[in-house]
């Protein structure tokens, strides 16, 4: 009891210091906390949207590069075929005429 009596008021004092503000804090800070949480959620959503847009843009760029490469390959093949056909035709015409 000699040890408990001096500690008891101290514990009550600490209890009052810790608990009393907790009753007041939510009333004051809940709107601030809600605003901060909403801002954080909005920022996270914006970041996710930006990441999704970036991924879509990357996919579009990759598809465009693949299509451009395919078109270039087709054009080169067509040009080579035309040049070969024209060359063979010219050679045949020259051989036949002479």
UniProtKB/TrEMBL annotation:
UniProtKB keywords: Membrane, Transmembrane, Transmembrane helix
Top-level division of the source organism's lineage: Bacteria
Transmembrane segments: 6-25, 32-65, 71-97
Protein name per UniProt: ABC transmembrane type-1 domain-containing protein
